[in-house]
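Sequence in, structure out. First:
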Amino acid sequence: MRRMTLSAHGRLTLAASIATLLGALTLRPTLQGWGWFVVVAVVVAPMAMAGAAVRQVSRWWLPVITVQLLTLLLTVTALFAHDEALGGIVPGPEAVRAMSDLLADGLETLRLQAPPVSASAAVLLVVAGGLGMIAFLIDLLAVTLRRPAVAGLPLLAVYCVPASVLPSGLSWFWFTVGALGFLLLVSADAADRIRSWGRLLGDTRFDQEPGSGIVRWVAGGGARSGAIALALAVIVPVLIPGLGDSLIGGEGNDGSRARGSNSTVSVIN
């Protein structure tokens, strides 16, 4: 029986979706519960599947992103403005007005509440809608434009949100989760590029299915390199002493800089 395999675009689409969801997990310390993550997955999955379906019949970028954005709009409308939408899914004027009001409430809640924020419907719209757009950008960069390394920038933007608003920042665990998503995305693209090389002539280790042996050989080294780099990114900052607030001296009573003083710098979040 012939084995069913995903196409190159299919593998990249799946990797982009997983990377988005792993990146979204870094928001966990800022939001209460896990219900928000389920909503994010419900928003991301249909858009990814719609893009993959269009790519089966057309490689032109315009119909792909058009269908993806339309799918994202319909999904968000069905989730947050079902009663006001036409047929429960098509956003009419009332649905747009309802989502606009809900969006304003969500932004106000995020502004006033300290993390972890309660995952109300308004907050869910902000989070799911924002991460839906992040998923779209990652898919556009990694799959449509084949620039997976650049797709790490939207993932970094997601990570920077909790890293900047939490008083003590994010722990190494959540950094690792987000970094694994980026490594998965880059390795999926690299594996597809390596497959296009075929097999190495004269090397019996790669006399199997064309491209399969060399992919495992190179991917194995790449996985080890990625694991080492990720481990260093987590461990090295722990080993290097941090810079205390007293590093920057304050002003003395006479207006001159007080060298060696224990003055601290106060910042507002």
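Second:
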Amino acid sequence: MTEDQILDTLRSVMDPEVGINIVDMGLVYSVEIKPEEVYIQITMTSPTCPLHGVITRNMDKILRSTFPELGAMTIELVWKPPWTPDRLSADAKKQLGWN
């Protein structure tokens, strides 16, 4: 599995409030494939977002079903740098009518 494959898989995880996948929303900050684990840093659009648990459970579920060989995985919620709308992909901006 590669970083690109993980990101492609995570495109099937939606932000439930907006209906756009977490990659195009810019919520996935980094993916690192280490020998002992896959390490993913994510953020939310706001520190008060109550959906962190839902999103991380969905991430875990889809990644483990897509990559059965996946062993240890850490999904870390970070707040720096803070999320801004600049992180939205062109597709996400189009879906939101921002183009």
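Remark: DSSP finds three helices and five strands in the chain.
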